[in-house]
Amino acid sequence: MKICMAQINTVVGDIVGNTDRVLAVCSDQHFNGTQMVVFPELTLTGYPPEDLLLRGDVLRRTEAAVRRLRAELPEELAVVVGYPKARGDLLFNSAGVITGREVIAEYDKQCLPNYQVFDEKRYFDAGTEPCVVSFGGIQFGLTICEDIWHEAPAAMTKEAGAQVLINLNASPFHRGKQAERIAQIELVAQRHAIPILYVNQVGGQDELVFDGGSFAVDAKGDVCVTADSFEEAFATVALDLAADGLLAPGNIAAPMGDIEAVWQALVLGLRDYINKNGFPGVVLGLSGGIDSAVTLAVAADALGPNRVEAVMMPFRYTASISIEDAEAEAQALHVRFSNISIEPLYESFMGALSSEFDGLAPNITEENLQARCRGVLLMSISNKKNLLVLTTGNKSELAVGYSTLYGDMAGGFDVLKDCPKMLVYALARYRNTLGDCIPDRVITRPPSAELAPDQKDEDSLPPYEILDQIVELYVEQDASRQQILAAGFSEDDIARVLRLVDLNEYKRRQAPVGVRISRRGFGRDRRYPITWAWRASA
Questions:
Q1: Distance, CA of 323 to CA of 346 (rounded, Å)
Q2: Same domain (yes/no): 325, 239
Q3: Residue 219 in 3-state DSSP?
Q4: Is 507 a catalytic residue?
Q5: Where are the beta strands (DSSP E) in 344-492?
Q6: Which one of the listed residues 26, 131, 145, 373 is annotated catalytic?
Q7: In this predicted model, what pLDDT tens digit does every residue of 35-75 receive, in sequence order?
Q8: What is the pLDDT of residue 404?
Q9: Domain check: are 360 and 398 in the same one?
Q10: Which of 62, 269, 297, 538 is spaced 20 to 30 Å from 76 by Cα?
């Protein structure tokens, strides 16, 4: 039997468009001799639909989409597709098997994740029964995503007579996730002596990126087929009841390294955010520093140079090499580039504020004003040209509040929001292996916001090599002050970083959305109060 794992990119809420996509794929696959097509979790609504599921009209449209699939799918083809299913007052995350103009079976997800970025218990009720359906002389058991990470669903399904296990997924990317998936599926296959088809969604949805990477393992747990990651793919699985392990070897996609995977996640996340929200392009401030250089390269790769505009906005503290490097980056990537000094704008603001500032010594206010002048310029260009402003802050800066509200935080999307500073350097070096676009001295010279004479980031922060490790321990691993101290960091650095992380939740709450690439980013993953008395640094 020839089965297609249809790793497609859906749009949340576009039920008609998603249904059109299912029908088009099934038509092509039927023409190519495929007997079964398997789609990801909640294909018809897209994932995650969030509070759209609370709307009755969404569920009615989904029911209409299922009726349309029954009427228009090729009769001989079996199609496994995910959708929300209401039964009385209950709502389930379901998978239906459609063939011969009928839904011949439906399975309700049993294990509902409610951690990290998942909120499924807010919307869904849990299923309790296995589902095994016969097609082409083979007994197929259905599971959905989180089910495969728990013992009971697979065990129940095998006991109910399944010969092949199908697992529909909307599993978001984080670093190292694909290896974790494969290890888990191999374990389940070996434990129950059953081949498993793991079909995953691909595409960007707000801060989440779904990386695809669908694969199939045989009854011995050996990977037989893999699809490419970070793109739509239609991987063919051949089932052979006479074969050892039931599943015949097929195409194996080339493995992807860690930094390459992060780069592809950033590119896909940005591309889908821009395209699915209908923006013609993006604009960003190009400072000559590492963060804006990497952001520009991601944007050019994601959208093409004709949809990217870079603006250099120098001030009296901007080094000449920063201006030179920014222009060189724009030229290397063939994007539109302009140079607009903020000097007159800054002086105008200072003049207007002179009576308010009379008798008060200069402080960080003057530095923040420079950033806010740049924010005003970028937002004005955005409004006039309908371009989305990309902010360029990284995770390290966002963690400790090393950014200016309504200044460099002004914008609609932050590509590097979940990338710590040292990872940004690794991304720059990786991108240059694909074609030089970031000058070496941008990577090697000490980072600076250039808001004051001879300013360096390390004047205000610990070295990034240290800062990033403390942030990872505290933010991503929930380590206590004592645990971080035991890891070998100094009391002063720990107290300083933890205090800044705790104090700056109010800034992060106002930050634009950005691609999540870690186990815990700032956003859906980490929900801390703004007003609180807790201080981990105490």
A1: 19
A2: no
A3: coil
A4: no
A5: 388-391, 413-414
A6: 145
A7: 999 999 999 999 999 999 998 899 999 999 999 999 999 99
A8: 94
A9: yes
A10: 62
Domain boundary among 220, 250, 280: 250
> ∠ CA(129), CA(201), CA(66), 5° rounding?
60
Q: Which of 109, 276, 395, 507 is catalytic?
A: 109
- For residue 480, being part of any structural domain is answered with no
Residue 309 backbone dihedrals phi, psi, to 5 degrees: -125, 130
Contacts for 319 with CB less than 8 Å, ≥ 6 apart: 288, 450
395 is catalytic: no
Same domain, 77 and 209: yes
Mean of per-residue pLDDT scores for the chain: 94
Q: What is the CATH number of the domain that holds 25?
A: 3.60.110.10
**pLDDT digit string, tens, across residues 131-178:** 999 999 899 999 999 999 999 999 999 999 999 999 999 999 999 999
| CA-based torsion, 513, 82, 248, 161: positive or negative | positive
Pick left, alpha or beta for residue 217 (phi over 0 → left; psi -120 to 50 → alpha; otherwise beta).
beta
The enclosing domain of 319 has a CATH number of 3.40.50.620
Count of domains observed in the chain? 2
Q: What is the largest CA-CA distance in the chain?
A: 89
Residue 508 resides in a domain: no
pLDDT digits (tens, 9 = 90+) for 342-357: 999 999 999 999 999 9
Binned at pLDDT 50, 70 and 90, residue 538 comes out as low
Whether residue 523 lies inside any domain: the answer is no
Here the tokens at position 340 are 């607009």
Q: In the structure encoding, which two tokens stand for residue 57, read together? A: 């009209």
Q: Render pLDDT for 73-108 as a digit per residue (tens, 0 to 9).
A: 999 999 999 999 999 999 999 999 999 999 999 999
Last residue of a domain, one of 439, 457, 475: 457
Report whether the peptide linkage leading into residue 195 is cis, meaning its omega lies within 30 degrees of zero: no
Is 102 inside any structural domain?
Answer: yes
Q: Is 146 a catalytic residue?
A: no
274 and 214 belong to one structural domain: no
Distance CA 468, CA 318 (A): 26
Task: Residue 222: give the domain boundaries.
Answer: 2-250
Residue for token pair 């001879």: 454
Q: How far is CA 212 from CA 171, 189, 201, in A?
A: 8, 20, 5
